[in-house]
Amino acid sequence: MLKRGPLRAAGAMSGTSLDGVDAAMLLTDGHRIMEFGETAYRAYTEAERAVLRAGLGHWPGTPETEAAAEVVEMVHAEVLAGFATADLVGFHGQTLAHDPRGQGTHQAGCGRLLAEALGVPVVWDFRSNDVRMGGEGAPLAPAYHFALAKWIGVRAPVAFLNLGGVGNLTWIDPRHDRPEDPGALLAFDTGPANAPINDLMQARCGLGYDADGALAGQGTVNEPVLQRFAGHRWFTRMPPKSLDRDAFADLQGQVADLSDADACATLTAVAAAAVARGAEHIPTPPERILVTGGGRRNPVMMQMIAAMCDCPVAPVEDAGLDGDMLEAQAFAFLAVRVARGLPTSFPATTGVRAAIGGGQLSDPRRAQTA
Ligand SMILES: Nc1ncnc2c1ncn2[C@@H]1O[C@H](COP(=O)(O)OP(=O)(O)OP(=O)(O)O)[C@@H](O)[C@H]1O
Ligand SMILES: CC(=O)N[C@H]1[C@@H]2OC[C@@H](O2)[C@@H](O)[C@@H]1O[C@H](C)C(=O)O
């Protein structure tokens, strides 16, 4: 049995950019943030990343996904070994495929095995119940973004923007008390963010990403490619909506004839345009957009977003938050919500019919997994 009151939860996230595993401790009762705790990061080795890449687009039960799950479990056990004092672990796993209106959603990594390895209860499989109930299964961080808005004490609507492999945006009206209140939140995936840039850098330069936007900064944006992207029907679809990492994989072909710098600048503008087109759906302009995820370190992308959106754009550090660990903290927060029977997604965040929880709790101290 988990104790009453606030819990020390460790969250772990392996994101779509496939760079590594982030872990962060949070003291929370699932409603409020009481304290931020220690953090850890373990980059995937090239060999591990290749195994994960080979699993992308595969559904459970193939040799590729089994190999990917083994890597995910092993690296998480290593990273989370330093969090043995946690009351609970929130384990997202690695999304390999996401098709909520078709085959479902698939996060590699078994939380029951991780719970046994760590000797700590683990909440995992956060997305599939939402999909089963008709939701998009993503984004799930908005419930945490709502708690963060309360933590930083905003009084006017604010937006959190995550620039990971894929981008996602949460608009929050802080006048509401609970994330499930109608009008409190609107969230959706904006579109591709760093994933197309990383794929380009890998293919053309043998590098993992465009560090500090250096290559993009030397290039010229190809307007026809940008305009074709901005006119995609994805942007007229009403939120909530979610995206698979490789949903816009054809972008690589569209920049194939451009120089490295022009292709990189164009894909960076694509990420920014996705945010700007997505922002057209939000109910009232936010006081500012607080940016989390690795893309906030790309000054070219940040400047393009600021230019295309009509409001201030700043890294979450400006509000005293940790933009590298925010998603790991989110899954610590969500784990506590699952353990306490609180909803983790809402009609305005995943499109699910009514606010619901999800996740499985595997407790190694019990014979059975609930
Ligand atoms: N200094 C930098 N300059 C440019 N880009 C950067 C920099 N640092 C990180 N990035 C980009 O951010 C990516 C990592 O972002 P992040 O860790 O937020 O993604 P993720 O959590 O894996 O993805 P998602 O949120 O979609 O699951 C890197 O792969 C790279 O593309
Ligand atoms: C299916 C899936 O793993 N989606 C991720 C991905 O990465 C960013 C964006 O697409 C977001 O929808 C989600 O992650 C964050 C943590 C979320 O659920 O809020």
Automatic annotation (TrEMBL):
It is an enzyme of class 2 (transferase). ATP binds at residues 15-22. The keyword Nucleotide-binding applies. NCBIfam families: PRK09585.1-5. This is Anhydro-N-acetylmuramic acid kinase. GO terms for molecular function: ATP binding; kinase activity; phosphotransferase activity, alcohol group as acceptor. It comes from Pacificitalea manganoxidans. It holds the Pfam family AnmK. Its EC number is 2.7.1.170. Keywords: ATP-binding, Carbohydrate metabolism, Kinase, Nucleotide-binding, Transferase. It comes from the Bacteria. The lineage of its organism: Bacteria, Pseudomonadati, Pseudomonadota, Alphaproteobacteria, Rhodobacterales. SUPFAM superfamilies: Actin-like ATPase domain. Belongs to the anhydro-N-acetylmuramic acid kinase family.
